[in-house]
Amino acid sequence: VFGKDINLILVLNNLSSDRKTVKVDMSASTILYTRRTVAEILKATTSVELGSKQGKHIRVKIPYAHYGRYLTTDKRIQVTALCEVMRTHGLKLLVEKTIILEDTNIIIKLPRRIVVNKAATLEISYANPLPEPVSRCVLLVTLMNQQVKINLARLAPRERSKIYFEFTPRRSGPLQLQVDFSCDKFSHVKGFVTIAVAPS
């Protein structure tokens, strides 16, 4: 989840009956959806001894403090482990994983029934998932081809807040509501909901 530390485990299994020494070069980078690297956020080398048919786990932690400011709106991190089995004429194995961080940010609550030409109130809750305060918070609410910009108060670390948004639908059928939340530390966190408007 975006804003939390990332905990990974690399599992190494020695399938042979001989002892093996494996050198592991770990790296992680924030990337764009095109896989282009933005910034390297982790580099570590370790050596592991594996006995006959033995497996070992290597724990890897990427704190938010290491990745937060280098993340793009794609929220992607590429982690690679280059595992070299020593004394085997350069036998290497590359393990790759792309992590897409989740946003658990925007929650939109609708009334049970929404009717044409009657005012309805939505509850939009939003959060700062980070371990640090955020300011210059803005919500952009798009509904019925209109966009409303709402400036919000600063949020403390991990704070959740909410606003109430009133609107009057002019026709029955489905309506798309889109919410876009930005602040000084992250941008374009989106929430969507389809509203079913009943005839009066």
List the helices and strands in order.
Answer: EEEEHEEEEEEEEEE
Biggest sheet, in brief? Answer: 5 strands, mixed
| Radius of gyration of CA atoms, rounded to a whole number | 24 Å
Weakly predicted, low-confidence segments: none
Global shape: elongated
> What is the highest CATH level, the class of the largest domain?
Mainly Beta
How many H/I helical runs? 1
The proportion of strand residues reads over 45%
Average pLDDT works out at 91
Number of strands: 14
N-to-C terminal Cα separation, in Å?
A: 42 Å
User: Roughly what percent helix?
Assistant: under 10%
What is the CATH superfamily classification of the largest domain?
Immunoglobulins
Number of domains: 2
CATH topology group of the largest domain: Immunoglobulin-like
Class by SSE composition? mainly beta
Query: Going across the major beta sheet, what is the strand order?
Result: 8-14-13-10-11
Second CATH tier, the architecture of the largest domain? Sandwich
GO molecular function: protein-glutamine gamma-glutamyltransferase activity
Protein name: TGM3 glutamyltransferase
InterPro entries: Ig-like_fold, Transglutaminase, Transglutaminase_C, Transglutaminase_C_sf
GO cellular component, one term: cytoplasm
Summarize, please.
It is built from one helix and 14 strands. It has a five-stranded mixed beta sheet with strand order 8-14-13-10-11, with no helix packed on it. A four-stranded antiparallel beta sheet has the order 3-2-5-6, with no helix packed on it.
